[in-house]
Specification:
By secondary structure, this protein is of the alpha/beta class. Helices cover 45% and strands 10% of the residues. The protein has 15 helices and ten strands. It has helices spanning 28-42, 54-62, 73-80, 90-101, 118-129, 158-171, 193-206, 219-229, 259-265, 275-292, 308-315, 317-327, 330-336, 342-347, 351-364, and strands spanning 10-11, 25-26, 46-49, 68-69, 108-112, 135-139, 178-183, 210-213, 237-239, 269-272. The strands form three sheets. A five-stranded parallel sheet has the order 4-5-6-7-8. It has a three-stranded parallel sheet with strand order 3-10-9. Strands 1-2 form a two-stranded antiparallel ribbon. Helix 5 (118-129) runs parallel beside helix 6 (158-171) and helix 12 packs across helix 15 (351-364). The longest helix has 18 residues, at 275-292.
Length: 365
């Protein structure tokens, strides 16, 4: 369960260059633990979109997102070009998580989903903790992880998963890092809803602090699982990718519950797993079709997409400009920035704000 921690943990964790008001920031793990504890008590949800790369992580942070997911099919696709079907390695996904989480101060969730025995899981947990992940999820699929709604999934024995939870507790170095357990039993071979509920209760008893019952598809199931699992006394995580599942054209798409509905049903962490990936792939397909089809015009795209100035603002060009100003000679700066244009002023519109932040950081350091 998410417990109170009387001890204050502080370090100089800036995530990216001076994005935070003070360089002595509370650890990501501590911030997320406190956030989940508060929202769970209030019956309010935490919206958790998936950041599959550094750009999406930066956009999410600037939009006020409090918690991001950097695990699953979306980062797998973006970083390897492969589907989630047991063909990627822990090393690849740990590298992706380290890179994404390193460019943002938002606490992130990762998942040990690449299989292996319990010893490999212990090693992977330690390596994921080094990425500054605030929540580390372990799963009850065997080696060769399959994406949540792909047919043919299997799950390991309950006793084996209990041992994995205990092993994760052993491997954890930072006591504020949250151990979550995902259960795939509902859609697994020879599985079902009853098996899912039974396993989730056992995983909670074994020490999992957050439970993700995967494979929920209907409103009745969301309500039933939420009501049943709320008795466990720990936060529930929802995987909200059912609306993206292939649906025959003569049937309506599965409805994804609203945030308010999920809150009323007892769900705390709302993981929007692959939505951004599908939006990204859809837009990319449309763009390249327009470009490759006569008359090869993409003029209409310019009315929809952000301009160069906004892109540079999101990526933090002003910060690098201030650092260049502080740590370069006046002569070299004079040659580079002798002339300014209106466009330049827009690109560097946050220059003064970043200058104040960095000077404050240097003074406190």
């Amino acid at each position: 369960m998410i417990n109170d921690h009387e001890k204050s943990h502080r370090n100089k964790e800036t995530g990216s260059l001076c994005n935070e008001e003070t360089p002595a920031a509370i650890k990501k793990s501590t911030r997320l633990r406190n956030l989940i504890k508060d929202r769970y008590r209030q019956g309010k949800a935490i919206i958790t979109p998936t950041a599959h790369d550094c750009v999406s992580a930066k956009i999410f942070e600037q939009a006020g997102v409090e918690h991001i997911n950097v695990a699953g099919a979306a980062p797998t696709a973006v970083w390897t070009g492969e589907p989630e079907c047991g063909v990627v390695t822990s090393t690849e996904m740990i590298t992706a998580a380290k890179t994404i989480l390193g460019c943002t101060s938002v606490p992130g969730k990762v998942s040990i989903a690449q299989g292996g025995n319990v010893l490999a899981m212990i090693r992977a947990f330690k390596e994921y903790e080094k990425t500054n992940a605030a929540l580390i999820q372990i799963e009850d699929q065997p080696s060769g992880h399959y994406s949540g709604f792909v047919p043919g999934k299997r799950v390991i024995a309950v006793e084996e998963m209990v041992k994995k939870i205990k092993a994760a507790q052993y491997a954890r170095q930072d006591p504020d890092v949250i151990i979550a357990a995902r259960c795939d039993a509902k859609l697994a071979v020879n599985g079902g809803l009853d098996e899912l509920l039974k396993r989730c209760e056992i995983y909670a008893d074994a020490g999992a602090e957050v439970i993700l019952p995967h494979g929920i598809e209907t409103m009745d199931e969301w309500e039933l699982v939420g009501k049943r699992m709320s008795k466990l006394g720990i936060p529930l995580m929802a995987s909200l990718s059912a609306g993206l599942i292939f649906t025959p054209k003569d049937r309506p798409r599965r409805r994804v519950p609203t945030v308010k509905e999920l809150e009323d049903m007892g769900w705390t962490l709302l993981n929007y797993a692959n939505h951004l990936l599908h939006i990204h792939m859809t837009a990319t397909k449309q763009y390249i079709q327009d470009l490759m089809t006569a008359p090869h015009s993409i003029d209409h795209w310019y009315e929809e997409v952000m301009d160069n100035g906004e892109r540079m603002q999101i990526l933090g060009l002003s910060t690098w400009r201030v650092l260049e100003e502080l740590f370069s000679s006046k002569e070299s700066l004079g040659k580079r920035y002798k002339k300014t244009r209106e466009e330049d002023n827009y690109v560097y519109s946050k220059l003064e704000e970043e200058r104040k932040n960095i000077l404050r950081y240097l003074q406190e350091k």
